[in-house]
What we know:
about 15% helix, 5-stranded antiparallel beta sheet
Amino acid sequence: MAQPLSKFLKPVMLKTAEGFSYYDYEEIVLFEASGNYSFLFTTDNQQHIRVLHNLGYIEKRYSKNGLFRCHKKYIINLKHINKFFVKTKSILMKNNIMIPVSEKCVTYFKSGEIK
């Protein structure tokens, strides 16, 4: 009996200019919006990868697994947060990228609950 291909592939499938790329959630640090596209930052790649999906698509499809929309321009992986700065409303990611946080998300982080 044949097994579905999805059983063998990594769970996050993203369309790029070259085709489709597959990632584990742990590899993803953040997505940054760029018009109708996004840039993906991963743990093993300091270069950003252009993804042919907007943040709305990524948020709807993958936000249940630790990816969180903290700003209109960013989706972050909660496992890759290094520090949260309340005064500057920003997050320092483990790859040393500073991300702004919306007012609504500041409230979530201060309460300890992410919705």
